[in-house]
Design goal:
The structure holds three protein chains of three kinds.
Chain A: H1 16-37, H2 54-61, H3 63-95, H4 103-115, H5 118-136, H6 142-166, H7 169-177, H8 182-211, H9 214-219, H10 227-235, H11 241-264
Helix pairs in contact in A: 2-11, 3-6, 3-8, 4-6, 6-8, 7-8, 8-11
Chain B: E1 2-11, E2 18-28, E3 33-37, H1 44-52, E4 59-64, E5 67-68, E6 79-82, H2 94-104, H3 109-122, H4 138-150, E7 156-160, H5 168-185, E8 188-193, H6 196-202, E9 205-210, E10 213-218, H7 220-225, H8 230-235, E11 240-250, E12 253-257, E13 263-268, E14 276-282, E15 287-289, E16 297-306, E17 310-317, E18 322-328, E19 342-347, E20 352-354
Parallel strand pairs in B: 3-8, 3-9, 6-7, 7-8, 13-20
Antiparallel strand pairs in B: 1-2, 1-4, 4-5, 9-10, 11-12, 11-14, 12-13, 14-20, 15-19, 16-17, 16-19, 17-18
Helix pairs in contact in B: 2-3, 2-4, 3-4
Chain C: H1 2-33, E1 36-38, E2 44-48, H2 51-57, E3 58-60, E4 67-69, H3 71-103, H4 107-122, H5 125-136, H6 141-148, H7 162-186, H8 190-198, H9 203-231, H10 235-241, H11 248-256, H12 262-290
Antiparallel strand pairs in C: 1-2, 3-4
Helix pairs in contact in C: 1-12, 2-12, 3-7, 3-9, 4-7, 5-7, 5-10, 7-9, 7-10, 8-9, 9-12, 11-12
Chain lengths: 269, 357, 296
């Protein structure tokens, strides 16, 4: 059916589409340029001198980058695993019952990392862990793992809780009614329907841990650089497209995980 | 079989507190089709869920064959529920759903299999065993939910408005089906509904509830013919209410004087009710139009409403009250009553029911 | 009943333990440290003093002991608040039409448009800041192009200015503005807009009198969501301000680095936290007030 162009469109507001297009350009242009110039043969970040993978090669062979990448991955895996398990348990405890005594306190604690500025938490952890480091002499990775687990919890908690709330509670009641003990009901009824939420939460936690700069910068001991803190350190010197290459890889991982998260949360309940 | 004593259920605290059940006591017998009937929010579902174990009463006890149910978690209670939403596990097939309870009871595989087949046959769903629950119709889901709850052979089956999601015709079929299943299995059914007709059709006994209280427990016929309270009379079927003067009482009966001055005999709900002012209930189909001197009440015919199976006559009585008479239609008969003319009303002795205050 | 409560706390315990140990609990230590005396080479001496709090806004002259306002700190506070407010306003100007644009797309494509907004948000903040830096620096795309076309002769200094910081913050926090506005707009009943046009509203007036009031809760949420992290921003001002244009986050970090004044850093952290909490409380109040209007 042909639509007359003069038909009045109630949804139209003059200029809004233009601003929206500009907004999307603004969001993506810098990232795209960064990705494109990571393949630049020359050192410039504005003049294209031909396609080359040299910056990826040199990043790949850089021992410091290798170490930081491995550390980032281990950290993100450990932290997202711990945070996801804790978040699943917390979500089960907070969605399947009526409001309970202390529930607002529990929500405040869980969401605290979302509300308190990162720099404040970073300072707090610096002071706290400094005391523990002096007392125990331990300077290993666990400080980072625990710190990352903590701020990943609310991110893992959100999608899991959302999915649990969307699930029909009478299914679990039916499970209990049919003689299923709580643990069996969880694995036979809840988990098969909750897993997209759990996976989504784990992916989100992974991305958050992988991307963290501020808290890691304050908590890490000497020689514990992750990729982001390594890159922050590099910014003081002359920026090389090597950093662009690392950025592009990290961006790729994030985009994949976020897109995956997005489609997971669309899986029908 | 089930003894419910002095159950009170309060949700929330302080200003938000809501009392769903107030000091409810009742006994459900072995092999009985027992119905909890009432409007939404009357506490019937709460009572059912406290038997199942999903809500914990604030006070009172529930015993099943002498055993205290309230100390047991839901998964240890020998009762099963058919949920209003059916609550079929969407990630399992029909057969897997039915097998679930048996597996949870750790029954051996072969026995589970034969029980599932038996149940599938019982609800006529054998062909659908391997379908996902999302691939079958509403009526079929209803049957699976029933089979799943019956499979572990519970002592009591709890049904929470299980027919409310079905369309009219299917609902009629399932009413008969449910009654058949109950007779065949011999299991005690506790059925919750807000549909009076459903309750009257299927039940051995009905408990009528309102605002967290039980108003009357009786067989369907007794509930309909002899409602004890105004709410019961009003909620189930249509009723005419009349203010009367009770002249004298004897056993179950009482002599009453109507506002027109005529006297007749009425049934008493409470044998301890006294003489004096009272309200009586008369069902429209228990009264007839009468033009002769025997009429108990007189007035003007205001409306004649035809409704297929019967015709309703609305009469404005002399004391300005309205009274409805219902008469079944027969082919070939045309009523000679004309709107605006005088009309009299008659009902037999013992038809009127004196209501509790 | 008791068993249920016990199970609940058992399930909650891992999350609560981790969060108390590595998020909430340490905040108390910050509060304690803000009342201690600074150690000579970082760290603290366990002596009670309110010096750190005094130093947040004032300073004592080294020679004649006169007290005057700490200009450096006050200007950094002022810059933080100013830039954060400007960031919120700029994000609103861009974000509101964008949310409206997405909300008026066909239902199927809306999710994909939103995905386009969400993806940058979940990608590394450092990398995104870094991408902005590459564009605006003297050797960056903008200056290179402008010089090439002969519009300017020497590169314009954009990097390491307040404007650069604001630009970067708008860029990194823009999705936080679009998300809540879109959430409100998606629920907007367009028959109300039709009714407004039917009652002789012009486009501008329908926007101002009908659409905007209905999505106001989303706008407030978005503004707070942008304002709060901007105020505590650390990475963006560090990279784009180049250590010349400090914001609160950088001032705090300085006390634990070169400054070696842990108590002052702690006091500044608590101050920042307090400002953020006030903003959040304000938001909760406004959101509660707006709620009934939005009931269905």
């Amino acid at each position: 059916m042909p639509v007359s162009t003069r038909q009045f469109d109630i949804r139209k507001q003059p200029g809004f589409t233009l601003i929206a297009v500009a907004c999307f350009l603004l969001l993506y242009l810098p990232i795209i340029l960064l990705v494109v110039y990571s393949f630049n043969a020359g050192k410039s970040i504005a003049i294209w001198e031909g396609f080359s993978l040299q910056w990826y090669e040199s990043a790949w062979q850089n021992k410091a980058i290798q170490d930081a990448a491995i550390r980032s991955l281990i950290l993100a895996c450990c932290a997202s695993a711990i945070a996801t398990v804790a978040a699943v348990m917390a979500a089960l405890a907070t969605t399947r019952t009526a409001a309970f005594k202390g529930s607002s306190f529990v929500f405040a604690i869980i969401n605290q990392p979302l509300m308190v500025p990162e720099i404040v938490t970073a300072v707090a952890l610096l002071l706290f862990f400094a005391i523990i480091k002096v007392a125990t002499g331990y300077t290993g990775m666990w400080y980072l793992i625990i710190a990352h687990s903590a701020f990943c919890i609310p991110f893992a908690y959100m999608p899991i809780r959302a999915r649990l709330q969307g699930m029909d509670f009478s299914l679990e009641q039916a499970g209990a009614d049919l003689y299923g003990k709580p643990s069996r009901v969880f694995w036979r009824i809840t988990f098969p329907q909750l897993w997209p939420g759990i996976l989504a939460g784990a992916m989100l936690a992974f991305v958050i841990s992988l991307d963290d700069v501020v808290i890691t910068e304050f908590v890490k001991s000497a020689g514990q650089d992750t990729l982001p803190t390594y890159m922050l350190g590099q910014l003081r010197r002359i920026v090389t497209p090597e950093v662009n290459a690392i950025s592009t890889v990290l961006l790729g991982i994030s985009v994949l995980l976020v897109a995956g998260f997005f489609f997971l949360s669309k899986i029908r309940k | 079989m089930i003894e419910i004593s002095n159950i009170t259920q309060t949700f929330g605290k302080g200003r938000d507190a809501f009392t769903a059940l107030r000091d409810v006591s009742l006994t459900i017998r072995e092999n009985e089709f027992f119905t909890l009937l009432g409007p939404s929010g009357c506490g019937k579902t709460t009572l059912l869920r406290s038997i199942a174990g999903f809500v914990y009463p604030t006070a009172g006890t529930i015993k099943l064959q002498g055993e205290d149910l309230l100390t047991l978690p839901p998964y240890s209670r020998p009762v099963n529920t058919v949920f209003q939403s059916y609550a079929l596990f969407p990630h399992m097939t029909v057969a897997q759903n039915i097998a679930f309870g048996l597996e949870m009871l750790n029954q051996p595989g072969a026995q589970v299999k034969s029980s599932v087949n038996e149940m599938l046959a019982l609800v006529q769903m054998t062909d659908m065993a391997d379908r996902k629950t999302s691939q079958i119709s509403g009526g079929q889901q209803q049957r699976v939910a029933l089979a799943r709850a019956l499979a572990p052979k519970p002592k009591v089956l709890l049904l929470d408005e299980p027919l409310s999601a079905l369309d009219f015709k299917l609902r009629k079929e399932m009413q008969i089906e449910l009654k058949r299943l109950q007779t065949e299995t011999g299991i005690t059914f506790v059925f919750v509904t807000h549909d009076q007709e459903e309750a009257l059709t299927m039940s051995d006994r009905i408990a009528v509830m309102n605002e967290g209280r039980i108003l009357q427990i009786d067989a369907p016929r007794a509930i309909y013919d002899h409602p004890a309270e105004r709410f019961v009379a009003d909620f189930i079927g249509e009723t005419n209410f009349l203010e009367v003067d009770v002249l004298s009482v004897e056993a179950d009966d009482a002599t009453i004087k109507l506002t027109s001055g005529a006297t007749t005999t009425a049934r008493r709900a409470d044998t301890n009710s006294a003489t004096g002012q009272a309200t009586i209930a008369v069902r429209p189909e228990h009264a007839t139009l009468s033009d002769d001197a025997s009429a108990l009440l007189r007035g003007t015919l205001e409306d004649v409403i035809y409704s297929g199976t019967d015709t309703h006559y609305h009469i404005r009585l002399q004391d300005n009250c309205r009274f409805v008479v219902r008469k079944q239609n027969h082919p070939g008969t045309m009523e000679a009553h004309t709107v605006g003319h005088q009309a009299g009303v008659f009902f037999d002795r013992g038809v009127a029911q004196i209501l509790r205050d | 009943m008791a068993a249920q409560a016990e199970r609940r706390w058992l399930l909650l315990s891992p999350a609560l333990l981790i969060l108390t140990f590595a998020a909430s609990g340490p905040l108390l230590i910050v509060l304690v440290y803000s009342f201690l005396e600074a150690g000579d080479y970082g760290g603290v001496k366990w002596v009670f003093t309110t010096d750190a709090w005094f130093n947040v806004v004032a300073e004592r002259d080294f020679f004649d002991e006169t007290i005057k306002i700490a200009d450096a700190h006050v200007s950094i506070f002022w810059r933080s608040v100013k830039l954060s407010l400007m960031t919120a306003v700029a994000a609103f100007i861009i974000g509101f039409p964008t949310a409206y644009f997405i909300a008026t797309r066909a239902e199927k494509s809306r999710d994909l448009w939103m995905l386009l907004i969400i993806i940058p948000f979940w990608t590394n903040l450092l990398i995104r800041t870094f991408a902005v830096m590459e564009i605006i620096r003297n050797e960056g795309v903008i200056n290179t192009l402008l010089i090439k076309f002969g519009i300017i002769e020497a590169p314009i200094q954009i990097l390491f200015t307040e404007f650069a910081i604001m630009l970067g913050m708008v860029y990194v926090y823009l999705p936080l503005m679009v998300l809540p506005i879109y959430a409100s707009m998606e629920r907007l009943d367009f028959t109300l807009v039709e009714a407004a046009y039917d009652l002789y509203g012009t486009r501008m007036r329908v926007l101002r009198r009908v659409i905007f009031p209905l999505v106001k809760p989303g706008v407030i949420a978005g503004s707070i969501l942008v304002f709060v992290p901007s105020l505590g921003a650390y990475v963006t001002p560090r990279v784009l301000g180049g250590g010349k244009q400090l914001m609160l986050g950088n001032l705090i970090e300085l006390q634990f680095g070169q400054g070696r004044n842990w108590p002052l850093g702690a006091a500044l952290s608590i101050t920042l936290l307090a400002i953020v909490m006030i903003a959040l409380m304000f938001y909760v109040r406004v959101a509660r007030l707006e709620e009934p209007q939005h009931g269905q």
